[in-house]
């Protein structure tokens, strides 16, 4: 069910009234023809007619936006004023409000004085405009403005005229101007909306109520309405790093083509007329190119108020193609950027085998990420040496690789515009080829599948802006330009073309610095308000371990006039042996070069042997139980040393001396662990003879052949204090066994024996000694109980003396790493026992002391 139309049309605007005298054969005024015009109204369904309301008279309905009537002459000296207003009506009878009234004055004599010519006439489009900001209109709209004209009676209105641009038919005469609108005398602007694709001239004149029109109107020439983006088979492709523009899908008959760069509302640069070169693959269609072999050049002629230049094509520049019929299409150069390929992760470590990555950015005019489906990365080799992976000269991500935006990071990716392309599964030859290939960031346009517009950012050897060598001569656009030189002491090899800074190999733990001086070799252009000032936004390390640091910089946030300089000092301090890499990145406004990325490298040399700890001796207490060798008067001890080296520990040796270090012999049966890593260990168990002074030393060799200096231990001595020597103090119920079956095999053939004590009557022994380690000698066996051992009142250690086999003079407990000085060990007999034991007997045989 349809709804009735209840909406009225819009009110007619720009009502203009004029009067023209009608003369007889004697040139006497016999009457006047009054003409009323207005801008058409709009309606949701459609305007059917207008009604004109004379101030004195009957309203008249008309079908179009004009009305005229004849009024009598005025034979008095008082002007006669006729006033009119207009409304609009639709088919449903809805009627608009009446327009503002317009008056026409009829005098005795005809007014023959013309208004002055409107001055300051401009015809602005969305992209080319006279002011400081773009008008808010569409790509097919033209906004005209002018200044007020004057008249002896008064300006009744202005008329706007349009014609096909005279430049399209020159040298033949242009077509006549056609009036497209009238506006009233108080209106000084008019928007010619949704004009057909083409290039036009515009002009404006003023008219008074007597119909006198101003003379010699100002003509605004070559105003283009455009398709944005291109349509049909057309595709426009800026290559900003080479100031080169290509295209495809243009008909040969459309040539010659003129290519323009528009920036800040001004035509910044223009090409010479360029013929379309047919593509054999698409008969009748081809490409027009500028600043590229086989194409045209940027003109050296004046472009409006500007000298002809080779523009520094950059993000935000509009690139417009206009054919010989004056039909224009355009695209805007996108803000995409790609670094060179890398085989390193963000921390400077190698990526997995067969993987390379490329980092870049993609953002719109507001600094937000471009839609991911609009960006692509390409690695471009040569047809003579294609990639093995696909048999082609180009690998793409997405495609052979993947591409995705990096996670937002407040420090490194605050707006989420940074992306990473990853190529995996590459053979060694493809990795090497990819690393040497040209890297391209591609914007695929607002409709990626249509292919109507692209921007291709290139990063590779030989990519440079300015006029195409050997064929084009328009000078490069003025502006900032950065030149880099290595200054100060030469501690690194600097290649400004390849943008590499390679430090000489140096020992780990040492440092070397290299200063890079940045000189602004730019120039100015007063007409274009280009000062040539280099503005450095940042200068820092993009990735890499702490081996590279910036130790001095005057470049960060620097503003550098032409011929001025700033400097950055990079310091290399290798912490480990091997190759180290990093990146130094400067971001600024240099022409054709918004980010200067330098690959840092340096080799660390490991000239030092491993760091080795002095061998440490401890009494061996691990099971099976360590019985003292009474016959040789010796006890088993463990000797341990460790080594560390950033290059890896390859080997360790352990030696012993018993003559004060005059001679050394290898310790047999050593055990090593951790060889081949940065931390290694060597240990051995040997019989330490009581009363003999021992000294040990360890030597380690790293993976590059550096040997450590021997790390020697202090002299170690071990003494035995027998249970019956009077030094150990026994308390409670202890019995002494000597030279009998119970003491057989004991040290000195004596022992003190006790069993589990009754409640409140502990059996203990204390031993006070001077040394750094102490051990308890006791018997173990199937009828043995349990004890606790503590040193200097510290935490008690529980010891179970049960063993399936009887063993006298056994090291059952030890406390090592004591501070030099006097200590006391306390042994306490427990009431508890092992469930497998047949008793609670405890034999104390003596104490071992290391000093």
List the helices and strands and how they pair.
Layout: E1 13-23, E2 29-39, E3 47-54, E4 60-62, E5 66-72, E6 80-90, E7 102-106, E8 122-124, E9 142-145, E10 155-164, E11 178-184, E12 189-192, E13 198-208, E14 219-227, E15 235-239, E16 244-248, E17 250-251, E18 258-263, E19 266-270, E20 277-279, E21 282-287, E22 318-322, E23 328-332, E24 335-338, E25 356-363, E26 375-380, E27 394-397, E28 402-405, E29 418-423, H1 428-436, E30 438-443, E31 455-459, E32 482-487, E33 492-495, E34 500-503, E35 506-507, E36 512-520, E37 534-543, E38 548-553, E39 559-560, E40 565-572, E41 578-588, E42 595-605, E43 611-612, E44 616-619, E45 626-627, E46 634-644, E47 649-657, E48 665-666, E49 671-673, E50 679-689, E51 695-702, E52 711-712, E53 718-722, E54 729-731, E55 735-738, E56 750-754, E57 764-770, E58 773-780, E59 786-791, E60 797-800, E61 807-815, E62 822-829, E63 842-850
Parallel strand pairs: 14-23, 34-42, 35-42
Antiparallel strand pairs: 1-2, 2-5, 3-4, 3-6, 6-7, 8-9, 9-12, 10-11, 10-13, 13-14, 15-16, 17-21, 18-19, 18-22, 20-21, 22-23, 24-25, 25-29, 26-27, 26-30, 28-29, 30-31, 32-36, 33-34, 36-40, 37-39, 37-41, 38-40, 41-42, 43-46, 44-46, 45-61, 46-50, 47-48, 47-51, 49-50, 51-52, 53-63, 54-57, 55-56, ...
């Amino acid at each position: 069910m349809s709804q009735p139309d209840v909406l009225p049309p819009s009110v007619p605007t720009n009502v203009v009234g004029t009067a023209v005298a009608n003369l007889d054969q004697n040139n006497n005024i016999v009457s006047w023809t009054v003409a009323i015009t207005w801008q058409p109204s709009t309606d949701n369904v459609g305007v059917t007619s207008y009604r004109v309301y004379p101030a004195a008279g009957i309203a008249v309905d008309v079908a179009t936006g004009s009305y005229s009537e004849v009024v009598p002459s005025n034979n008095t000296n008082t002007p006669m004023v006729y006033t009119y207003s207009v409304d609009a009506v639709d088919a449903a009878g809805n009627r608009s409000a009446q327009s503002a009234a317009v008056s026409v004055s009829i005098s005795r004599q005809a007014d023959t004085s013309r208004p002055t010519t409107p001055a300051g006439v401009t015809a602005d489009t969305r992209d080319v405009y006279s002011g400081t900001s773009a008008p808010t209109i569409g790509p097919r709209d033209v906004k005209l403005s002018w200044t007020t004209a004057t008249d002896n009676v008064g300006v009744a209105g202005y008329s706007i005229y349009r014609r096909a641009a005279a430049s399209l038919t020159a040298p033949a005469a242009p077509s006549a101007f056609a009036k497209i609108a009238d506006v009233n005398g108080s209106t000084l602007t008019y928007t010619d909306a949704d004009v057909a694709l083409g290039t036009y001239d515009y002009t404006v004149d003023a008219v008074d109520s007597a119909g006198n029109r101003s003379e010699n109107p100002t003509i605004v020439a070559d105003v283009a309405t455009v398709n944005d983006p291109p349509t049909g088979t057309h595709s426009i492709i800026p290559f900003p790093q080479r100031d080169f523009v290509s295209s495809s899908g243009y008909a040969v008959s459309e040539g010659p083509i003129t290519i323009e760069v528009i920036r800040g509302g001004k035509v910044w640069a223009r090409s010479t007329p360029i013929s379309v070169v047919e593509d054999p693959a698409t008969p009748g269609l081809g490409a027009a190119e500028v600043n590229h072999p086989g194409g045209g050049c940027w003109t050296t002629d004046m472009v409006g108020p500007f000298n002809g230049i080779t523009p520094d094509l950059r993000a935000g520049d509009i690139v417009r193609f206009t054919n010989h019929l004056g039909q224009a299409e355009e695209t805007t150069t996108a803000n995409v950027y790609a670094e060179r390929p890398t085989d390193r992760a963000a921390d400077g470590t190698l990526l997995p085998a067969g993987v390379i990555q490329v980092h870049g950015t993609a953002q719109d005019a507001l600094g937000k990420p471009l839609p991911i489906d609009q960006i692509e990365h390409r690695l471009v080799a040569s047809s003579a040496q294609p990639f093995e992976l696909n048999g082609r000269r180009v690998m793409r991500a997405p495609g052979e690789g993947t591409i995705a935006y990096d996670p937002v990071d407040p420090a490194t990716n605050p707006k989420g515009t940074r992306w990473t392309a990853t190529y995996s599964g590459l053979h060694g030859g493809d990795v090497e080829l990819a690393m040497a290939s040209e890297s391209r960031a591609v914007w695929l346009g607002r409709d990626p599948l249509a292919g109507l517009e692209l921007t291709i950012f290139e990063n590779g050897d030989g990519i440079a802006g300015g006029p195409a060598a050997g064929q084009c001569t328009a000078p490069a656009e003025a502006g900032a330009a950065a030149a880099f030189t290595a200054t100060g002491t030469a501690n690194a090899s600097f290649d400004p073309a390849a943008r590499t800074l390679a430090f000489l190999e140096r020992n780990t733990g040492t440092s070397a610095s290299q200063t890079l001086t940045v000189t602004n070799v730019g120039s100015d252009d007063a007409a274009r308000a280009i000062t040539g000032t280099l503005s450095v936004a940042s200068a820092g390390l993009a990735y890499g371990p702490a081996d590279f640091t910036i130790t001095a910089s005057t470049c960060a946030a620097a503003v550098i006039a032409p011929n001025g300089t700033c400097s950055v000092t990079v310091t290399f301090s290798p912490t480990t042996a091997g190759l180290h890499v990093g990146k130094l990145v400067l971001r600024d406004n240099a022409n054709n070069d918004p980010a200067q990325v330098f690959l840092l490298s340096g080799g660390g040399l490991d000239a030092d042997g491993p760091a080795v700890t002095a061998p440490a001796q401890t009494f061996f207490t691990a099971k099976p139980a360590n019985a003292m060798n009474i016959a040789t008067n010796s006890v088993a001890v463990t000797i341990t040393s460790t080594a560390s080296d950033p290059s890896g520990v390859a080997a360790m040796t352990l030696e012993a001396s018993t003559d004060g270090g005059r001679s050394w012999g290898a310790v047999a049966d050593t055990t090593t662990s951790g060889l081949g890593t940065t931390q290694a260990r060597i240990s051995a168990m040997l019989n330490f003879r009581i009363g003999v002074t021992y000294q040990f030393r360890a030597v380690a060799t790293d993976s590059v052949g550096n040997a450590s200096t021997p790390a020697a231990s202090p002299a170690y001595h071990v003494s035995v204090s027998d249970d019956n020597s009077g030094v150990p103090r026994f308390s409670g119920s202890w019995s002494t066994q000597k030279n009998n079956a119970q003491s057989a095999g004991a040290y000195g053939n004596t022992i003190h024996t006790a069993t589990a004590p009754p409640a409140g009557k502990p059996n203990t022994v204390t031993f006070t000694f001077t040394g750094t380690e102490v051990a308890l000698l006791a018997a173990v066996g199937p009828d043995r109980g349990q004890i606790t051992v503590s040193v200097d009142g510290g935490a008690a250690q529980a010891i179970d003396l049960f063993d399936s086999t009887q063993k006298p003079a056994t090291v059952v407990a030890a406390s090592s790493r004591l501070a030099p000085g006097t200590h006391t060990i306390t042994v306490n007999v427990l009431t508890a026992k092992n469930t497998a034991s047949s008793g609670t007997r405890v034999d104390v045989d003596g104490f071992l002391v290391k000093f």
